[in-house]
Predict the structure.
Amino acid sequence: TIDEPSAEESYAILKGIVSKYEEHHQVVIEDATLKAAVALSQRYINDRFLPDKAIDLIDEAASKLRILHSGEPASIKKIRAKLEQMDTEKEDCIRREDFEAASQLKKKELRERAKLDLALAKWQDEKTQHKLHVTEADIAKVVSEWTRIPVEKLTEGEAERLMHLEEALHRRVIGQSEAVTAVARAIRRGRVGLKDPKRPIGSFMFLGPTGVGKTELSKALAEAMFGSEADLIRVDMSEYMEKYSVSKMIGSPPGYVGYDEGGQLSEKVRRNPYSVILFDEIEKAHPDVLNVLLQVLDDGHITDAQGRTVSFKNTIIIMTSNAGAEQIVSPKRLGFDTGGDEKAKNYQLIKSRVMEEVHRLFRPEFLNRIDDIIVFQPITKEDLRSILGIMMQDMTRNALEELEIHLHLEKDAANLLIDHGYDPKYGARPLRRVLQTELEDPLAEEILSGRIVKHSSVRITVDKDGKKLKFTGRRLPSSSTQGRKGKKSKSQTASSVPEETEA
């Protein structure tokens, strides 16, 4: 067997053949571009081998660049259009037997054709003397098309991105500072090479009751690391409770139904190797399924039923569990409304109790392969105020921006929504339902009835009984509307509900 050449050997191979591609595509390919092709292909393209994948990157990038600049300049197109018009006019003169006018057009046509020949010669000369340069950005664009990773994520300095990871996560995840910090630190450790490069970027177990932000942190992490929430692969482990469920994950063996389709997990990761994989309610999975995950966490790959190796080294593994949730939401044993020191002590006490439950449910060899086990804190009313601000911001951006309706949520209205939507057992989920039934539904009726129209400012307060929201719409002046068109309103940019006025 022939081993895959190293990065240095692949670069030397590319140096030896690059002149052929430069001659074929009439471009210049610099050494930095060759190094980028090797580095990016080695890191982001796992189902092929060097130097083949790096050569294809160079070839496709050079081809795209040549095609992009192969069109004639506007000046030449203008002359051609003029010639076509002259030819039409000349034919028309001949049909009318106006031969003198046709003769004049013929002379003009000859002069224009001389101009065209001169312009074409000059253009060809410029193409020969000033060849196009294939850059690292061109290579990155091709890799982006192959892997579906946004090109800006490939070219952006990863160190810069990792250093600001907490900031990106905190914009979406409220009240979970310990969880955000732990995730960001573990990912930085993995990316700088302080762990086995064959293993996943990071592996975590999120513990806590429903509605505290476990799934939201997973989505935020997918967006921050890979560019989009679509890069989150969600696996509901309640579907893998039986022994035969392993075949659903990696594919059926030869001769069985579904063999050609591949496994649900292995196929998704093979097609999207740069993703966050969320295993929801991991405690429900059959032990044989956990054995597959054990291999993923330890070796960074699995072999599917068709014998193909699927790499997980560019994924982030997250497992969620409700184990020990009752220890977190029990108010008698928590005391989360006390001072900072007491709160920290309570958190550590709760974490130790939750870990006892986790050790009872999972085997030590499984837990020891997880980078960090993170216990999420329950959501407080103050956290809900910030979450309400994010929900209002999303609603404005998704639904009301086109209508140019600007919402102003007063303090009493915000307090009413928070009071109705606060439930320590279910976290932030009840607030979403309350926002829908008490704000979105009545607001939709006001818009449909015509009481609130386009280009309006809507003040949201509480009615006299203090039980329902009241909407007061005021049409904005045309000058105010024009002034707002080019910029976002405060309701769109706020990340939390202010004390008095806008959300």
Remarks:
- Residues 157-375 form a domain with the Rossmann fold fold (CATH 3.40.50.300).
- Residues 331-336, 480-496, 498-503 have pLDDT under 50 and may be disordered.
